[in-house]
Amino acid sequence: MLTVDFGRLGVGPGTSVIDVGCGAGRHSFEAYRRGADVVAFDQNTEDLNAVDEILQAMKEQGEAPEGARAEAVKGDALDLPYADGTFDVVIASEILEHVPADDRAIAELVRVLKPGGSLAITVPRWLPERICWMLSDEYHANEGGHVRIYRADALRNKVLAHDLRYTFSHHAHALHSPFWWLKCAVGTSKNDHPAVAAYHKLLVWDMVDQPWITRRAEELLNPLVGKSVALYFEKPAAFQEPAAVQESATPDDVEVTRARD
């Protein structure tokens, strides 16, 4: 289940890609399938071990073009261990909502992007996320949970402050919004609830079989209740690093909570 539209990123053989906060690795796997040289980057060792196993299996089974390279790297998104302008494409999907110091994280994403390269950022969309927060504290107020709700224009402006060019945006995963509203209503840990289990089965069917009826329904619903918003940027070829951007968050930009002890 991809949130990023790879068709907009020009990922192919020889493209250098870093997937920051790769999680289970879905975007790293797609970039590798397309022949890119991929860094799957995360701070979670357990996730990275699983991602590395799948990357190795893809290589052994010929699912990635000859010559493509991929590695799983553990590290901190606030201090990426790479030189300025290392990657052609930087992906940060569904991570910034977890990061208190998001301005610093964005600065690092921009720093390691090559001039002329593309940056894709996705976060939960404001309305579906706001409903989840209203229905359940358990959904967000936990260690490692969501610390803010973004408005797309506020996030876009945070990135544009680094002198990148905004190119496109879209919404994704509309069918997942009602699923999470349902989970928040009955309890996020109650995966065996009959309604939750039935809806999960529908989502698995959709992801595995991709029937036309659910694909068409999601296409129509994405502009209304898409669970995620994806923003795309380009770094100008004649890029000069701007003055340091102050880390800031005003009430108009985000809604903030702290994880409970």
Q: How would you characterize this protein structure?
A:
The protein has a domain at 6-125 and 136-173 and 226-237: Rossmann fold (3-Layer(aba) Sandwich). 36% of the residues lie in helices and 21% in strands. The longest helix has 16 residues, at 45-60. The protein is built from 8 helices and 9 strands. Mean pLDDT is 90; it is low at 245-261. It has helices at 26-33, 45-60, 102-111, 126-135, 152-160, 176-186, 194-209, 212-225; strands spanning 16-20, 37-42, 70-74, 87-93, 113-124, 148-150, 165-172, 228-234, 254-256. The chain has 261 residues and is α/β, with parallel strands linked by helices. It is globular.
Short structural summary:
With 261 residues, the protein is an alpha/beta fold. It is built from 8 helices and 9 strands. It has a 7-stranded mixed β-sheet with strand order 3-2-1-4-5-8-7, with helices on both faces. A two-stranded antiparallel ribbon has the order 6-9.
Helices and strands, with pairings:
Blueprint: E1 16-20, H1 26-33, E2 37-42, H2 45-60, E3 70-74, E4 87-93, H3 102-111, E5 113-124, H4 126-135, E6 148-150, H5 152-160, E7 165-172, H6 176-186, H7 194-209, H8 212-225, E8 228-234, E9 254-256
Parallel strand pairs: 1-2, 1-4, 2-3, 4-5
Antiparallel strand pairs: 5-8, 6-9, 7-8
Helix pairs in contact: 4-6, 6-7
Radius of gyration: 18 Å
Distance from first to last alpha carbon? 33 Å
The CATH architecture term of the domain at 6-125 and 136-173 and 226-237 is 3-Layer(aba) Sandwich
Main beta-sheet strand count, sense and barrel state: 7 strands, mixed
Shape: globular
CATH topology of the domain at 6-125 and 136-173 and 226-237: Rossmann fold
Going by CATH, what is the homologous superfamily of the domain at 6-125 and 136-173 and 226-237?
A: Vaccinia Virus protein VP39
Keywords: Methyltransferase, Transferase
Organism: Mycolicibacterium arseniciresistens
GO molecular function: methyltransferase activity
GO biological process, one term: methylation
